[in-house]
Write a structure and sequence with these properties.
The longest helix has 22 residues. The chain has 13 helices and eleven strands. It has 348 residues and is α/β, with parallel strands linked by helices. 35% of the residues lie in helices and 15% in strands. Helix 8 links the parallel strand 4 and strand 5. The chain is globular. It binds pyridoxal-5'-phosphate. Pyridoxal-5'-phosphate binds next to helix 5.
Length: 348
């Protein structure tokens, strides 16, 4: 049986969170002398002298409308990387607990585990880049708190079979974290709508990819009210700054632009695949549900260096298990993709 209280670290269960000035008085007042701010303003055209809303209410209300999820089920972090770290700090006792990761996958799960002194048990994906359910079942023990699944997966680009993820959600008594950073590009449905079904589900999304706001550092976790409440207690009081909150809110009003870019990115991706697949050094291009493609080549290092010499940077994944010979290429603008293709045509 999934029981949140049994999963939480004791120190977090008993934590009295920091109570900020903005927590202690909510509402409108004419004179604010409670937070030791500079009352005169900021040496900028726009004032930023007041602390931001610790719970990012306005951004959550807008996200709630867009995602069809109540605001109380949304956590906002300084990037989804912060949400990943907060999950470790909330649930994993350093040196005691473990998590399961399924490489090749996004590198921050391992790094966050290392920072928090938590063992990350690796269960490699299959050759088809799908979950190895038996391997995962064998790796789970009574100290396994979290399983990280990235879908669509970085760096492979494919989505993970939905039925397999549901099998984990239904059978694992810890938390299944589904990282949907690339979901806006995917043919697959988000898991957000399953929050009412599974108490042990956390879905991560971000404004860094399709929303084009990587520099603002705004990422989301969607989960049960109880899990969100824990994450809010553990997070730094003002984790999302005021400029990011204001700009995110403005950007979230522009869904049409984002949808147009998604459509164009997918068209460009398909075009890129068609051109690349006929090149002599390309051995395989893996099916992608994201805004990048994983390309298996005869000489990843040689091609990578050749591209760098021509001012084009892709990601060399040659040293990643199950990605030998692979380059991960982000889909760019039509002009950038043309430059890439023209340059690759000169590679001998
Ligand atoms: C799968 C995945 N999750 C999360 C992130 C980080 O997102 P954020 O910018 O919201 O921290 C990335 C960034 O590359 C990613 O690929």
């Amino acid at each position: 049986m999934f029981e949140l209280n049994n999963l939480l670290r004791n120190n977090i269960k008993n934590l009295t969170p920091y109570s900020s000035a903005r927590d202690e008085f909510q509402g409108e007042a004419s004179v604010y002398l409670d937070a030791n701010e500079n009352a005169f303003g900021s040496p900028l055209d726009t004032p930023y002298n007041r602390y931001p809303d610790p719970l990012q209410y306005k951004v959550k209300m807008r996200l709630s409308e867009i995602k069809g999820v109540p605001a109380r089920n949304i956590f906002i972090g300084n990037g989804s990387d912060e949400a990943i770290d907060i999950l470790f700090r909330s649930f994993c006792n350093p040196g005691v607990d473990n998590v399961i990761i399924v490489p090749p996958t996004y590198g921050m799960y391992q790094v966050s585990a290392n920072i928090n002194d938590v063992e990350a048990r690796k269960v490699l994906l299959t050759e088809e880049y799908q979950l190895h359910l038996e391997g995962i079942a064998e790796a789970i023990d009574e100290h396994t708190k979290l399983i990280f699944i990235c879908s669509p997966n970085n760096p492979t680009g494919n989505s993970i079979n939905r039925d397999d993820i549901e099998t984990l959600l239904a059978n694992f008594n810890g938390i299944v974290v589904i990282d949907e950073a690339y979901i806006n590009y995917s043919r697959q449905k988000t898991f957000i709508q399953e929050l009412t079904e599974y108490a042990n589900l956390v879905v991560l999304q971000t404004l860094s990819k399709a929303w084009g706001l990587a520099a603002l550092r705004v990422g989301m976790a969607f989960a049960s009210e109880e899990i969100i409440e824990v994450m809010n207690r553990v997070k730094p009081p003002y984790n999302v700054n005021e400029a990011s909150q204001q700009l995110a809110l403005e950007a979230l009003g522009n869904v049409a632009q984002v949808n147009a870019w998604i459509k164009e990115t997918l068209e460009q991706r398909d075009k890129l695949v068609l051109t690349l697949k006929d090149m002599a050094f390309v051995l395989d291009i893996y099916p992608s549900d994201a805004n990048f493609i994983l390309v298996k080549t005869t000489d990843a290092k040689g091609i990578y260096n050749f591209l760098v010499e021509h001012g084009i940077i892709v990601r060399n994944r040659n040293n990643v298990e199950l990605c030998e010979g692979c380059l991960r290429i982000t889909v760019g603008t039509p002009e950038e993709n043309d430059t890439l293709i023209q340059t690759l045509q000169q590679y001998k």
